[in-house]
Amino acid sequence: xxxxxxxxxxxxxxxxxxxxxxxxxxxxxxxxxxxxxxxxxxxxxxxxxxxxxxxxxxxxxxxxxxxxxxxxxxxxxxxxxxxxxxxxxxxxxxxxxxxxxxxxxxxxxxxxxxxxxxxxxxxxxxxxxxxxxxxxxxxxxxxxxx
Amino acid sequence: xxxxxxxxxxxxxxxxxxxxxxxxxxxxxxxxxxxxxxxxxxxxxxxxxxxxxxxxxxxxxxxxxxxxxxxxxxxxxxxxxxxxxxxxxxxxxxxxxxxxxxxxxxxxxxxxxxxxxxxxxxxxxxxxxxxxxxxxxxxxxxxxxxxxxxxxxxxxxxxxxxxxxxxxxxxxxxxxxxxxxxxxxxxxxxxxxxxxxxxxxxxxxxxxxxxxxxxxxxxxxxxxxxxxxxxxxxxxxxxxxxxxxxxxxxxxxxxxxxxxxxxxxxxxxxxxxxxxxxxxxxxxxxxxxxxxxxxxxxxxxxxxxxxxxxxxxxxxxxxxxxxxxxxxxxxxxxxxxxxxxxxxxxxxxxxxxxxxxxxxxxxxxxxxxxxxxxxxxxxxxxxxxxxxxxxxxxxxxxxxxxxxxxxxxxxxxxxxxxxxxxxxxxxxxxxxxxxxxxxxxxxxxxxxxxxxxxxxxxxxxxxxxxxxxxxxxxxxxxxxxxxxxxxxxxxxxxxxxxxxxxxxxxxxxxxxxxxxxxxxxxxxxxxxxxxxxxxxxxxxxxxxxxxxxxxxxxxxxxxxxxxxxxxxxxxxxxxxxxxxxxxxxxxxxxxxxxxxxxxxxxxxxxxxxxxxxxxxxxxxxxxxxxxxxxxxxxxxxxxxxxxxxxxxxxxxxxxxxxxxxxxxxxxxxxxxxxxxxxxxxxxxxxxxxxxxxxxxxxxxxxxxxxxxxxxxxxxxxxxxxxxxxxxxxxxxxxxxxxxxxxxxxxxxxxxxxxxxxxxxxxxxxxxxxxxxxxx
Amino acid sequence: xxxxxxxxxxxxxxxxxxxxxxxxxxxxxxxxxxxxxxxxxxxxxxxxxxxxxxxxxxxxxxxxxxxxxxxxxxxxxxxxxxxxxxxxxxxxxxxxxxxxxxxxxxxxxxxxxxxxxxxxxxxxxxxxxxxxxxxxxxxxxxxxxxxxxxxxxxxxxxxxxxxxxxxxxxxxxxxxxxxxxxxxxxxxxxxxxxxxxxxxxxxxxxxxxxxxxxxxxxxxxxxxxxxxxxxxxxxxxxxxxxxxxxxxxxxxxxxxxxxxxxxxxxxxxxxxxxxxxxxxxxxxxxxxxxxxxxxxxxxxxxxxxxxxxxxxxxxxxxxxxxxxxxxxxxxxxxxxxxxxxxxxxxxxxxxxxxxxxxxxxxxxxxxxxxxxxxxxxxxxxxxxxxxxxxxxxxxxxxxxxxxxxxxxxxxxxxxxxxxxxxxxxxxxxxxxxxxxxxxxxxxxxxxxxxxxxxxxx
Amino acid sequence: xxxxxxxxxxxxxxxxxxxxxxxxxxxxxxxxxxxxxxxxxxxxxxxxxxxxxxxxxxxxxxxxxxxxxxxxxxxxxxxxxxxxxxxxxxxxxxxxxxxxxxxxxxxxxxxxxxxxxxxxxxxxxxxxxxxxxxxxxxxxxxxxxxxxxxxxxxxxxxxxxxxxxxxx
Lengths: 146, 775, 457, 168
Hints:
The complex is a heterotetramer of chains A (146), B (775), C (457) and D (168). Helices cover 71% and strands 0% of the residues of chain A. Chain A is built from five helices and no strands. Chain A is elongated and about 60 Å long. Chain A starts with a helix and ends in a 6-residue tail after the last helix. Mean pLDDT of chain A is 75; it is low at 112-127 and 138-146. Chain B is mostly helical and 775 residues long. Among the domains of chain B are: 292-518, no CATH class; 602-683; 721-775, no CATH class. Chain B contains 32 helices and two strands. In chain B, strands 1-2 form a two-stranded antiparallel sheet. The radius of gyration of chain B is 38 Å and the shape is elongated. The mean pLDDT of chain B is 86. With 457 residues, chain C is mainly alpha-helical. Chain C has a domain at 273-457. Chain C contains 19 helices and two strands. Chain A binds chain C through residues 20, 25, 28, 32, 35-36, 38-39, 42-43, 46-48, 66-67, 70, 73-74, 77, 80-81, 84-85, 88-89, 91-92, 95-96, 101, 104, 107-108, 111, 127, 130-131, 134-135, 138, 145-146, and chain C through 23, 100-102, 125, 129, 132, 136, 139-140, 143, 146-149, 151-152, 154-155, 158-159, 162-163, 165-166, 169-170, 173-174, 176-177, 180, 182, 225.
């Protein structure tokens, strides 16, 4: 059983890693969610014993209540973080009109002045213009800052 | 009267006065810029007065704990060596400050800068003086190091005072890097000494038996730092560059004080250095090299201050050589030499500054014939120059006499080298003075203030006065030399009209010197060739190359990082995998992994595990984002089935609910982004290796996770004491569901944290989606 | 003085501040005041602990082990005080200029809560929970300012750090599985009795998790991207406060819970630390924007902490603590002052630069000195040489930056407010003060190691 | 899009869902479930209304508008339960009645402070779930309005540059 659980956790981890390596941000998030799932399963698997639901008084052997509490907390936290990341991806989309990590990365390389592709300065200029526009927008919306 | 007035602790008093000087000057100077110069003069004079008094008072010291944890003490001792260098720092300091009080306003005016920059200049100048005073008095090696670096900081700001000029900034940086980085060697040396001898106190170190190799290495490191500060080959190149500083700085720091700090350091540690012959020999080599390099290059330079700067390198070479010779003449000569040199060299620097102010010329070829136009200046600097080339009746005569005596005692070959060195000095000093003051008048000078010529005259005349009335100077030098000699030192100097070695050598020197001066036409191409060779392969070139090379490497690494590594999760996964792999390899792992028993009751769990694993793999298959989300939810839901099978209904319930909620939120988010974009993004690029590499990394990560998880889970569980206790206590806590009670009571603090995270996330989501409005 | 007070101030304070619009000055200053109050409470707690020894509070009245125990010892308090100082300064700095986001002050307070909580908790899982509070606050903070650049940076930051958090969580679950306890004291009693294999695996992933937080090579790639893109106050918070989690975690988990594994893995830490020093230093040299130079400098400075830890022993741990504390202050000062203009800001920056280069009388001198000292006393010339090279590199990049940034005639801009200047000057003075009177900090760092059981290297 | 049928069903479903959630909440200490799951159940019920009535309508629900405040109220409640004992010198989170003491009963329910804490959790979760979905809904509405306005401008002056969308 130990081996089975280990393999499953390893598979989820590997799959999560594979997704996180993608350039599509939506897949990256999915990878992050899977990662959280793998961790949660591991916490459950780290329980010291197995049995029935730990509701006392119980005549059967009960399962490890502490890992359950830990898993609950961990689930909630990873849920919260996933929500946050989703919102951030939305903001990134809003700013770049793209959810493609490669594109964002290349823009960054351009900003460091390290890209020699002919289109580099175009992207740079566009990006700067967008920065400026956003600043203006923020300034204009005095009441609704951020 | 209280004791501290009748019997003041002069060491502490001097320390306080010296550090009060920059503070007062800056504060008052910022308040009333016109007062800056006066305050600077008065405070410096006060410090000088304290040093003067110390010669008639008894030796004083202060020694209190500074940091007990590290065994540091605030230990200042005004001994003979400290007195002499403090006298130099404050005495030359006073003259330079007087000179600067007129020079700096002119300088600022020429550069179209406001007078409000004056306090900054004097502040750093006096800070330097204070650091110097602290440095020479410090008895604790770390305390000494603090002041040592403080002089470097002050020098950095003074060289870079004209910060609108690119060369000033570059030179300041160069001086800081060379002296600052080499200073770290001093620190390492000091720490090594402490490690060997168990104390930071220099007087204590000297009394301890110290013949170990590590002690020698430590002293060698200290020596390197000291020689770098004294601008000795091969660290000398910062000094000529530092001439971009305003002239008073050059006259003070870069001829009399800061470069003297280096040889001071050698003097301080000399009793220990003396027991290592290889250190002494190294000093001889470096000293003679510096004399030769400095002297030859000085002969090729045309810029006034450059001539003097290279001559300073050469002059401190003498001191290092005398320390390296190590006999009685050498030790006393070294201290005496520093004293004499400081007087004359600062006079020459001030002359250069005065000439530049009067004529606007900075090159020797632009000046000439000033003896008739500026007789006072010519006289003052002439006397100083006479001192430097060791003409009789000046204090300089004795410095060479001691030098010759020390060299001769070592052997005739050294004597010959000494004569050659001195002849070089004769040549470049004469060349300087003749070039400026004799010959045709090229630029008609303006009349300049007495503040600019007065200090030169004072210094020049005093070289003659002390050349005739030698007692005070000898007294000072003797009491200073007792410390390096670690015992009483005597300087016997007088004018002898006989054919002793020293006199013969002196006459030979002058003859050779005159020959050099008149034969300039013949040797100057050779000297120029040497100088340009130095430019091409010298250490300055190395310094610049190193900086360039570092920048190149830096850019190259950066390019690789930004292009290929940054924002790649792989850069975390791969090294993490390697580290875990190392851990697996390097630990005993026979029997560490076990398959675990499996009974029929586990079959549903195993099946669900299979489903989960398959679903997890399936997530990476679909192209459509919506399907990805649904597949991920499948993983979550099948996990919750596993939880319920494992006897955790609470977890299963929450997992289902959370998975639903997350799915809803995810889909809502996807709806916000146009399908067109998502569809566009889902098309994978036609990378040749991309996918294959990703798969390899994923397998590595999976394997890593597998080993960690399996390795941990294989261990038989420890006692279940804690969870039994929870079940026992749950009824007491008014509950039945142990998990809920843990969450709300036993470990309620975790839940507090968890809901705080949730609240925080909500704030974040609001700010990201709704620009922070809560309603 | 109770442990609960700083936490209560921060918790209620964060909640209270979150209700209001943080862009308004009074709200911002209230937040600053609350942070300062929490800081004062922590300092008072520290004095109490210094006099009467560590304090412990069992949450909900259960005995330690069953309930969560809060423990205030010198190690935790030192880091808590430093982090709160950094947070207060950074927030004050931002408020004195202009806060651009409503929730910024609340986020800083939540961050303070998370940090203080994790420095005080004696329970491994509770550590994780507080860790997540501070991380989530940092995730949102990283996107503060909202220019596309910052959003990108925040994204990288989250993805990488989430990985670290998950690893840490797995590590804690593994510790529980190994020992049957979550209380750190109990775990540290149990671990030496366990067989090596599972423990070293656990220790490794926890090391990786904290290395990611610290930005240690080769886990650093997120760091320059984030620091470059973000605002100075946020960079100061991330490098001055959040990174403390890494150093504290390595000390608490490494030296306290896994001393055996720490010894065995010392060579790995030594190698990684060395590479960090050289890599960060070399990378910083040719960078142009101040934030980027400082980011790489941070990577380099972390290496020293690792080296101190790998040498170990009382002196080594004390050196690590001292270095971490001074480094946090340095980085805060540098990030904040680099964004200002004028000679006053330049002077403050110079103090920070000298401190990073280890030049007295700036406090950083003692940080460098103790590292040299342990290297020499331990008879390791290679370490000494390495620290020397690192120091030389930091000289080069700090002063090249200083020259390029402050040694030009520059006009004051409107962002350089008097309040901001006063803050950086105060911070610079504090660093000089540490350099002149190092004894308090030195003895505190020594005292902080006393709770770490394994002292012999 | 939605029919009258689904709308009515959703509205009718809301009440039972909320009741279930309250049930889960109060029975949490004795049985499966706690404040958190109760909160999520209730939120799902409320969000269901959004699914039925559309984003605009959903955004107007007072429950949605004030959801973020519920989070703060909940957090405050939970904090108060946690930190009030400190005032009297007890450790954080000491629950009343303390372990072992008997509690006041109201039918099968016990009056103990953990229940208050759980209510805090419940409120936070509702606030969070409903609030964030509400935020998304509002953003959806805004975008649609933007798009409409943009189309309007484009029709009005053909040369006017499009604010967004040209970099896609």
